[in-house]
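S.,

Sequence below, as promised.
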Amino acid sequence: MAVPPGAVVRTGYVDLFAVRLACRERMAVGDVKAAFERRLQLGDHQPWPCPRGHWEGDTFVLVDGRHEYVAALMLGHEHILVAWCER
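The prediction came back faster than expected:
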């Protein structure tokens, strides 16, 4: 994430069903598996650095971290910790 001068990086929990993936290309099974295993080891904790994106109304557009997002869905999590820039 590139943070422009004067911007602030915010983090927060987002409902998984309020997230849209910016990139919908195919994902490597091994990358999703690695994210799944990492989340499995963390239990109810969230990984850092967290997935990043931006807000479009009430929807969070995930730009980086789609493997983490899919892993959270697979594990039945309701929320995911994300980061975004605000001016």
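The beta strands are 8-15, 19-21, 52-56, 59-64, 79-86.

Coffee later?
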